[in-house]
Amino acid sequence: MNILEELKLKFRTGDVLTRLVLVNCGMFVLILIADIFYTLFTSGTDMSIARVFQFPWNPAVLLRHPWSIATALFTSHGLWHLLFNMITLFWLGSIFLQFFTSNGLRGLYVLGGVAGMLCFMAVFLAFPSVNGKGWQQTIPLTSACILAFSTALAFRAPNHAEPIPLFGPVKIKYIVIVLALADAALLPKSNPASDFAHLGAAATGWLYNFMLRKGHDITVPVTWLFVKTSNLVRSVK
To answer: What is the pTM of this model?
Structure first.
């Protein structure tokens, strides 16, 4: 069994958290390979192809790159940001599953990304003058997706403690705050609109926990969509 077959098997048999990690890593490799060829055979600059997979605020660009609505959910700012995101995703995602369901994790991951897109676009549309400030026109949304379920976890179990080397047990609310600040430090400073996208994702996490306590699960539509898509794929096969 070669590596590709092993990864396919891991994806088919893995849980939601494993699949999210694999898709994120796979998207990074795809963008990296595409960027190498793009840079070698065109006059494009390094990593310029990555913006094709990120979410653009401009509706006209979005119409030309409709796939970015999906691919942006699994993109990061380079290798170090990817590594940070995957460690955070797996670690906090595992803790999240102790208090919520796998459907909640997947649904909130997607909804957090969608909220990030809407907030990112809203900044540019509400304040047209920012277009002349040289802000980056696209955004990767993996970290926003992670922040969504991390915020829900922090509000659900703020005093749950996890052991941290050299520090001992640390409450989850402080872990989420520190990781959110570290993620903000890894983001490029060329686009303050990214901060609004992350705030939107965090608000989605709070809303999920708030509504769940009232008996309403806002991730149900995402679960329904994934079930329908999975059934469609099986029927085609």
So the answer is: 0.90
